[in-house]
Amino acid sequence: MQEPISEAIKDTTPFLTSDTVVFGLLMLSLGFIFYTSHKKSGFWSKFYKIVPALFMAYFIPAIFTSTGLIAPEWTTIEPNGDITKGSSNLYFVASRYLLPAALVLMTLSLDLKAVFNLGPKALIMFITGTVGIIIGGPLAVLIIGTISPETVGGSGADAVWRGLSTLAGSWIGGGANQAAMLEIYGYNQKLYGQMVFVDIVVANIWMALILIGIGKANTFDRWLKADTSAIESLKEKVSSFSKKVDRNPSLTDLMILGAIAFATVSFAHFGADFLSGAFEGYVNGLPKGLMRNSLTFLNSSFFWMIFIATLIGVLLSYSRLKSYEGAGASKFGSVFIYILVATIGMKMDLSMIFNNIGLIFIGLIWIAIHAGLLILMAKLIKAPYFFLAVGSQANVGGAASAPVVASAFHPSLATVGVLLAVFGYAIGTIGAVACTFLMQLAAAS
Question: What is the pTM of this model?
C-alpha cells in the first residue's frame, strides 16, 4: 500500500511566511543588536567584548529559522492533501539589490593606491585558502573513509566523490563553478540536495567562527606577530578623508546617495544581463571539456553584477562624488551589509547539523584543514587576521560574504574581499577539478 503523501513529505511551514513581516522582524533584531552593542557598561558591554555585533546579526535570524519562526523555504501540505512550495525572497533582494548598492557606497571613498599598498599577503592568503580546499577534500575523505567506508562509497553517478566535487567548486569559486562540477562529473541529481545541505551547514558554521574571530582580531594579530601598518594606514586615510568632508547631510545629499546607489544597481543588472547573455553563446560554443567548464562563471549574471558595481565604485572614487562619503555613504552601505548578513543567517537551520552526520563530518574536517593551513601560513608570513578571514571567505563564501567580512574590519576594505572573490570565480573550476581527482583516488584507496 502506498504511503500517504502527507506522511511521506513533512510540512515545514514556518509561523511567519510574509516577507514584509519577516523583514520587520529582522530589522527589529538589528536595531536591538546595535542598541545593546553601544551600551558603555553592564552586561551588554561585557557581552559584546566577546561576541561581535556582526555575528549576532547572523546568529539571531538563524535561531528564528531553527525554531520554526521563519524559514528561507518551506513545504505546505494543504488540508485536501495538495502540496505547495513557499520561499522567502529576502536573501535574493539583499544580495541582488542591497549588496551592489553597498559596494558602490563603500567604494566611493576608496584609496585604490593604498589598497595596492596592502602588499601581496592578501593574495598569498587567498591562494593558501584555495590550496587548503584542494588538499582538504581528499584528506577528509581518507579520514572518514577509514572510520566509515560507506559514507564515502557509492558507485557510478552515486559515487560520493562526484557529489563532493560540487562542494569543491562552491568553496573555491561560487555557484557557477559548483554547477560546472555537477555537469563535469555527472553526480546523481536526486542526491545533489544533500551536498547543497552540507555546503550550507559547514560554510555557515565556518563563517560564524570567522565573525566571532573578528572580535578578537587584535589578539590574533599579536599572536601572529602581524604587521597591520598598511591596513591601519588605509583605514586612517579613509577616516581622515571622512572627517574632512563630514557634514550634516541634507535631503539633497541623501537623494543623491540614493541615486548613486540604485542607479549603479540598475546599470549593474543591465550590464550583467547583457554580458552574461553575450558570453553564454561563446562559452557554450566551446568544445566540451575543462576549458568550457572553467569559463562557466562568465555566464553568471551575479558575477558580472558584482564586478560592474565594484568597477563603478572605483571609477566614482576619482570623481567629485567621493565627497559624499561625508554625507554618510559608507554608513548607508553598512546598513545594507547588515541586512544582507541577517538574510544569510536566516538560511541557517541549526538543527540541520545533526542530519547526514557523516557528510557533515567530511565537510567539517575539510574546512578544518583549510583553516589550519591558513593559520600556519599567517604565522609564517606574519599576515594579519584580516587577510586570513577575507582570504578564506573569498574562497568558501564567495562574492556575497567576502565583502561582508572585509567591511566588518572597515567599510573601505570591502573592495579587497570583492577583488579576491572575483579571482576565485576565475580559478574555481580548475582548482575543483584538481581536488576532485585527489578525492577520487582517496575514495578508491
Answer: 0.79
